[in-house]
Specification:
Length: 377
């Protein structure tokens, strides 16, 4: 039977954070590979997916499933019915959860295992929900897809996943959105942030405990407070739930500038990342680390940690630090003092980022779909 894939994109949030960019890149890549494809999504996203995959069948989910409880209920009833309606041979659920009786083989993407290994860094409700979803997917999905070897190893350890049914498929990066910015794009991002001519250190991500932002703020203060022209620190991304960020921000000396920018317009992201003196991402653990890859693609010098999957992304093309304040401060200071080192890291990161394409990721997903189809539901 010919392969026809239904991708359930109903779980992605309205803002295009990491999960949203993953699903969009995957759908575009699978579509461009010529696969018979259907996508179900929230109504607000239908036009976007129709543009990304003009030959795919794009189905609008009921408006009533915008909230998580309603969406999860629909996933168990409406989604299996849709599988039959579009005559799918494989269903891909790209964000942990899946219908228990889909009627066809199911591939599920499990993005990371930190809900088990670092549950204290998540809200109790979120950790419990995604732990249960991961356990269920490891047992009921035909194939599990993970973005890194580190996540595969962790899932084997914490949920005893059958490694023969877990496929490692790294994410890609969209070169139309993430590429070395022009001087005009850098200037536009600076104007949007009202930075004038001030240099800055950039962070991109949700302000959640796992991202280690309080330590970054303390380290930045320590690294720049005595400099003649100290660079600002700009925190871009969702506000999250790390209450310590506000407490650390209140302690920043008055002569330093800390900017919490929130979500940036996608058109400003490459100028923001590529215009930074350093992009700092001192995470305590990632299933992949898409912001690191995106910054590399913008030719930014990146500083991150060696926790979990981050070295699989950065390789030898980024600078590394331990996640404590003193180590981050020392690493930041060394980068700020050495323009040649920053340039070398930026060039190496740009070259390495070219290995991570959505076309390659889509091809590996298709291999996983083919295995699922041959193994049955």
């Amino acid at each position: 039977m010919p392969l026809r894939v239904l991708v359930d994109a109903t779980a992605i949030p309205a803002d295009r954070g990491g999960v949203g960019r993953y699903v969009e890149g995957l759908v575009a890549g699978v579509h461009d590979a010529g696969v018979d494809l259907a996508v179900v999504c929230q109504r607000r996203d239908a036009a976007r997916f129709s543009t990304l995959a003009p030959h795919a069948r794009v189905v609008e989910a009921p408006a009533a499933i915008a909230g998580r409880p309603a969406r999860l209920a629909w996933e168990q009833t409406g989604l299996p019915a849709l599988v039959g309606d579009v005559r799918a041979t494989v269903l891909h659920s790209p964000h942990y959860t899946l219908p228990l009786r889909a009627g066809v083989p199911v591939c599920v993407t499990l993005h990371d295992a930190t809900f088990f290994t670092a549950s204290r860094l998540h809200t109790a409700g979120k950790a419990g929900f995604f732990q249960a979803a991961s356990w269920l997917a490891a047992r009921r999905a035909t194939r599990c897809i993970v973005p890194s070897q580190a996540t595969r190893r962790e899932l084997a350890r914490v949920v005893h996943a059958d490694l023969d049914r877990v496929d490692v498929v790294p994410h890609g990066v969209d070169p139309a959105l993430f590429r070395p910015p022009t001087s005009e794009e850098i200037a536009a991002a600076r104007r949007a942030l009202r930075l004038d001519g001030l240099d800055y250190i950039a962070f991109l991500g949700t302000l959640e405990p796992r991202k280690n932002v309080p330590a970054l703020i303390r380290a930045w203060v320590r690294a720049v407070r005595d400099r003649e022209r100290p660079p600002a620190l700009v925190l871009a991304g969702g506000l999250g739930w790390d209450v310590r960020v506000a407490a650390e921000a209140a302690r920043v000396p008055s002569h330093l500038r800390l900017l919490q920018a929130g979500y940036l317009d996608l058109d400003h992201l490459r100028g923001f990342l590529g215009g930074a003196v350093v992009v700092a991402y001192p995470s305590l653990g990632e299933g992949f680390g898409l912001p690191v890859l995106e910054a590399m693609a913008c030719r930014a010098p990146v500083l991150t940690t060696q926790r979990l999957a981050l070295p699989e992304v950065g390789g030898n093309a980024v600078a590394y630090t331990e996640p404590d304040t003193a180590s981050i401060a020392a690493a930041l200071g060394a980068l700020l003092d050495d323009a040649a080192l920053r340039a070398a890291i930026a060039a190496a990161g740009l070259a390495r980022s070219a290995r991570f394409t959505w076309a390659a990721s889509a091809g590996a997903h298709l291999e996983s779909y083919g295995r699922a189809a041959s193994e049955g539901s």
